[in-house]
From TrEMBL:
InterPro entries: MadA (IPR005777), NagB/RpiA_transferase-like (IPR037171). It comes from the Bacteria. This is Malonate decarboxylase subunit alpha. It comes from Roseospira marina. Coiled coil: none annotated. One of its GO terms (molecular function) is transferase activity.
Length: 557
C-alpha cells in the first residue's frame, strides 16, 4: 500500500500551473509586471480551451481591459471557456460568447446585459449553469466552481506586485483566495504602479502578473439615485413602509435593495421618520453600499453602522470623513467586502426590503423573465429566513410570533422570523403588471434547460408586500389561501388584483392582515416631493458639506 501511495502524484494542479507560467515567463518582468501590449499573448500562454475562468465583474468595478483582451485571443486555441463571475454588466462580457471564446456561464447579476443574456440563451449561444446568489457563487468558488485563471482589478500595485484595492475592494479577496490556493493563476489590471501603497490589500505572492491598464477600470455608480426622479407614488410607498413596517416592528438592522423606493425611504427618514418618532428606533445598523441618498439620514444622526458590499463613485471623501459610521482602513479609505457583507446580510439582518419585476399569486417573485435575465445578486441571501440564525432581536421575535404556521412544524417551539419586504407599484416599467398568475421564470427555465424556474424570493420567505393600495402582512396569514387573498387585496388593477373579493378584503383589513393607507393613518395627499430631505443631487452635496462629488452624469447645475 505504501509503495503504491508513494508512486501517486499529488501535484497535478501545481505542475499544470507551473507549465503555463513557464510559457508566460517571457512576458513577465520585475515586480511581476507585464506590458499592456503583451496582455493578449499572456492570456494565450496561461489559458487553455475549456478552462474555468473568472473575470472580475462586480456590481461596480470591472476588470474591463482584461475582458477586452480576452476577446482578442485566438479562438482556434482558446474556446469553450466556462465563465464563473459575479456579474456580467458589460457588453464585452457577452462578446466572449458571441465570439465563440466562452460557452458556459455561472453568474449572479446581469444588470444592463439582462436582455442580451436572455437572447443568447434563446439562440443557444450561451449555456447557463445557474443564476446564483453572491454567497452561493462564492461558496462554489471554494468547492466545485474554482477558477483556474482569474482576471481581477485594483487601484494600485507596488514594485513588488502587492495590490491596493481601496474604496472598491468588493469581490477581489474572495476571487484571489479561491483561485490562488487551488493552484490557479491570478492576473491583475491596475490603474497605476507606484513605489508605496496606502495599504496592502492583496499580498504580492498571491498574484502572478500585474498589468498597468491603458485607462482606469470602469466603475458603475449602481446605487446612485437622483432625488429629482423620486415620484409621489414612491414617496407614498415609503411612508407606508415607515409607518406600517419600520415603526410597527422597530427594525434596527436593515438592508435596502436597489431602487427608487428605498431611496425615497432614506430621504424620508429625517422628515417623515422624525415626525413618527422613529429616530433611534430603526435604521441604526445597515448593510448597504454608501448610497448618496443616505447622506441626510447620516448627517441627522440616524445611523450607527454601515458595512458595504462595494463602494459608490463620488462617495470616497464623504466616507473618509465619517469613520464612526463606515468601516475604513488605516489610510482612511473604505474597506468594502462583498462576501462579508453578504454573510452579515444573510444572518445578522432583521429586515430586507427591495423590489422585483414580477410577483405571482402565491407570493413567489423573480427578476429573471423570458426577455430579461437580470439575476439576483444578493437579494435571495438577504431576502430569506436564514435557518441557521440563533440570536434574537425584538423585531425578529415579533415577526415570528405573528406567524401562525410556525407551530405546525415546530410543535410548541418558539422561533423568530426575518422581515422580507417587497415594495412595488402594481404596474412597472412599460405599464407591465408586476402581479401575474405565473412567473415568466417558468418560460426562462424551459428556454435555458433549467431544472427549476429561477425564483429570487420564494413566497414562504416573503413577509410583507407594499403597494400603493396598502400593505399585505403575509406573516399573519394562517394558510396559503389567506396569503393569496392578501396579495390580491394589494395588487390593484392587475389581473390578480381584479380577482379580489370586497368582502374578503374587508375581513382581512378587520384582522390587520391588510392595511390601506387610511387604515394606517397615512395621508395620501402628503405624499409629495416637499417631504423629501433632499430634492436633488445638488441638495445631497449641500447636506454632505461638499464632500460628496457626484459623477458627471448626475450633475445638473
Amino acid at each position: 500500500m505504501s509503495d503504491r501511495t508513494s508512486e501517486k502524484a499529488w501535484n497535478h494542479r501545481s505542475a499544470d500551473t507551473a507549465e503555463r507560467m513557464a510559457s508566460a515567463a517571457r512576458f513577465i518582468g520585475p515586480g511581476k509586471v507585464v506590458k499592456a501590449d503583451d496582455t493578449v499573448a499572456l492570456l494565450e500562454a496561461v489559458i487553455r480551451a475549456g478552462d474555468r475562468v473568472n473575470i472580475e465583474g462586480n456590481n461596480q468595478k470591472q476588470a474591463d481591459f482584461l475582458a477586452e483582451s480576452l476577446n482578442k485571443v485566438d479562438k482556434s486555441k482558446i474556446h469553450d471557456l466556462h465563465m464563473v463571475q459575479s456579474a456580467v454588466p458589460l457588453p464585452v462580457h457577452l462578446d466572449l460568447f458571441e465570439n465563440g471564446i466562452a460557452k458556459k456561464l455561472d453568474f449572479a447579476f446581469g444588470g444592463p446585459q439582462a436582455g442580451r443574456v436572455a437572447q443568447f440563451i434563446r439562440e443557444g449561444k450561451l449555456q447557463l449553469g445557474a443564476i446564483h446568489t453572491y454567497l452561493e457563487l462564492f461558496g462554489r468558488y471554494f468547492l466545485d466552481l474554482t477558477p483556474k485563471v482569474s482576471l481581477i482589478c485594483a487601484y494600485k500595485a507596488d514594485r513588488q506586485g502587492n495590490l491596493y484595492t481601496g474604496f472598491n475592494t468588493e469581490d477581489t479577496p474572495t476571487i484571489v483566495e479561491a483561485t490562488k490556493f487551488r493552484q490557479g493563476i491570478v492576473i491583475a489590471q491596475v490603474n497605476e504602479i507606484v513605489d508605496t501603497l496606502p495599504r496592502v490589500d492583496i499580498p504580492a505572492d498571491w498574484i502572478d502578473a500585474v498589468i498597468e491598464s491603458p485607462k482606469p477600470f470602469f466603475l458603475e455608480p449602481l446605487f446612485t439615485r437622483d432625488p429629482a426622479l423620486v415620484t409621489d407614488s414612491q414617496i407614498l410607498l415609503g411612508m407606508l413602509c415607515l409607518k406600517g413596517i419600520y415603526g410597527e416592528y422597530g427594525v434596527q438592522r436593515i438592508n435596502h435593495g436597489i431602487g427608487f423606493l428605498t431611496s425615497a425611504i432614506e430621504l424620508l427618514l429625517p422628515t417623515y421618520g422624525e415626525e413618527l418618532g422613529l429616530k433611534g428606533k430603526t435604521c441604526s445598523h445597515m448593510i448597504l453600499n454608501p448610497h448618496p441618498t443616505m447622506i441626510p439620514a447620516i448627517e441627522s444622526g440616524w445611523v450607527d453602522t454601515i458595512h458595504c458590499f462595494g463602494g459608490e463613485l463620488g462617495m470616497e471623501e464623504y466616507v473618509r470623513a465619517r469613520p464612526d459610521v463606515f468601516f475604513t482602513g488605516p489610510d482612511g479609505s473604505l474597506r468594502s467586502n462583498r462576501a462579508f457583507a453578504q454573510t452579515a446580510g444573510h444572518y445578522a439582518l432583521d429586515m430586507f426590503i427591495g423590489g422585483t419585476l414580477q410577483i405571482d399569486k402565491f407570493g413567489n417573485s423573480s427578476t429573471a423573465t423570458a426577455s430579461r435575465v437580470a439575476g439576483f445578486g444578493g437579494a435571495p441571501n438577504m431576502g430569506c429566513d436564514a435557518k441557521g440564525r440563533r440570536h434574537s432581536t425584538d423585531s425578529w421575535l415579533k415577526c415570528g410570533q405573528e406567524q401562525p404556521t410556525l407551530n405546525r412544524v415546530l410543535g410548541d417551539m418558539p422561533r423568530g422570523k426575518r422581515l422580507v419586504v417587497q415594495g412595488v407599484e402594481t404596474f412597472g416599467e412599460g405599464r407591465a403588471p408586476v402581479f401575474v398568475d405565473k412567473l415568466d421564470a417558468w418560460e426562462l427555465a424551459e428556454n435555458a434547460g433549467l431544472d427549476l424556474p429561477p425564483v429570487m424570493i420564494y413566497g414562504d420567505d416573503l413577509t410583507h408586500v407594499v403597494t400603493e393600495e396598502g400593505i399585505a402582512y403575509l406573516n399573519r396569514c394562517a394558510d396559503i389561501e389567506a396569503r393569496m387573498a392578501a396579495i390580491r387585496a394589494v395588487a390593484g388593477y392587475t389581473e390578480i388584483g381584479l380577482a379580489a373579493k370586497p368582502e374578503e378584503t374587508r375581513a382581512l383589513r378587520d384582522a390587520g392582515i391588510v392595511k390601506t393607507p387610511e387604515d394606517l393613518g397615512v395621508d395620501r395627499d402628503r405624499a409629495r416631493r416637499d417631504l423629501l430631505a433632499a430634492k436633488s443631487v445638488r441638495d445631497l452635496v449641500t447636506w454632505s458639506g461638499g464632500l460628496y462629488n457626484p459623477p458627471a452624469r448626475f450633475r445638473n447645475w
